[in-house]
């Protein structure tokens, strides 16, 4: 008897495979805004229009999740698009602010190093046979929320007006707190990956033990049936 394939952890039901939903449309618009934002900041340096795109990105990031739950429009595509848009906005804004020398290089390296480290997790999990995606942690969403507030304020601080002077400390406050949460959530993803790997190995060992026990019992039964019982050999 073949033991069932061990599952690393109980998973939530997969969302339906839908494309044309309001949350997906918002996420798609956010993605389309990424190259426009980069061009506005690095090309004509139209910071006002770039701030508008960042504001839309922040509001739509909040709305798409709320609408998906309220309208029952969760989908596999939405689960993919939402974090992808977040990562691309963070990446593009870091690049733009660093090139414009609004933030120092070490700040960009600190944020990018976390994402590079997390890129190694899915291949490592697949290598040991764990195919379960890590759930999005609320700290990761909180970090993204803080960073998407910090970046417009830091971009606004590039000027010489009183508004720029007021925006600078507030922007850095959001940036520092967001970066701390960003790394904290990254470490928690590594902890979750370790727990998944340990559970998977435990299930694998249990399945192998059950297979061995079933095989031993079958072999013992066959051996018992292969020899005549006492008193029958003389017949």
Question: What's a quick, concise take on this entry?
Answer:
The chain has 235 residues and is mainly α.
Summarize the structure in words:
The structure is a single chain. This protein is mainly α and 235 residues long. The chain has a single domain (22-218), classed as Four Helix Bundle (Hemerythrin (Met), subunit A), CATH 1.20.120. 74% of the residues lie in helices and 0% in strands. The protein contains seven helices and no strands. The chain starts with 21 loop residues before the first helix and ends in a 9-residue tail after the last helix.
Give the overall pLDDT as a whole number.
80
CATH class category: Mainly Alpha
Distance between the termini: 36 Å
Structural class: mainly alpha
Query: How many DSSP helices?
Result: 7
Q: What is the CATH-assigned architecture?
A: Up-down Bundle
Number of strands: 0
DSSP strand content: under 5%
Q: What's the number of domains?
A: 1
Largest sheet: none
Global morphology: globular
H and E string: HHHHHHH
Low-confidence stretches: 1-11
Radius of gyration: 27 Å
> Helical residue percent?
over 70%
């Amino acid at each position: 008897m073949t033991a069932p394939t061990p599952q690393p952890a109980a998973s939530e039901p997969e969302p339906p495979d839908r494309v044309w939903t309001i949350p997906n449309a918002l996420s798609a618009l956010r993605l389309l805004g990424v190259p426009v934002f980069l061009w506005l900041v690095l090309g004509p340096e139209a910071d006002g229009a770039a701030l508008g795109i960042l504001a839309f990105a922040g509001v739509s990031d909040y709305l798409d999740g709320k609408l998906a739950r309220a309208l029952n429009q969760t989908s596999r595509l939405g689960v993919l698009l939402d974090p992808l848009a977040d990562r691309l906005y963070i990446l593009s804004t870091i690049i733009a602010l660093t090139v414009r020398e609004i933030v120092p290089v070490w700040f960009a390296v600190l944020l990018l190093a976390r994402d590079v480290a997390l890129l190694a997790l899915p291949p490592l999990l697949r290598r040991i046979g764990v195919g379960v995606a890590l759930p999005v942690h609320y700290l990761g969403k909180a970090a993204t929320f803080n960073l998407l507030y910090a970046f417009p304020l830091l971009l606004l601080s590039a000027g010489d007006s009183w508004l720029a002077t007021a925006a600078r400390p507030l922007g850095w406050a959001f940036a520092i707190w967001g970066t701390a949460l960003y790394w904290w959530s990254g470490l928690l993803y590594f902890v979750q990956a370790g727990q998944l790997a340990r559970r998977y190995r435990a299930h694998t060992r249990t399945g192998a033990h059950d297979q061995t026990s079933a095989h031993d019992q079958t072999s013992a039964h066959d051996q018992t049936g292969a020899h005549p019982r006492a008193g029958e050999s003389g017949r």
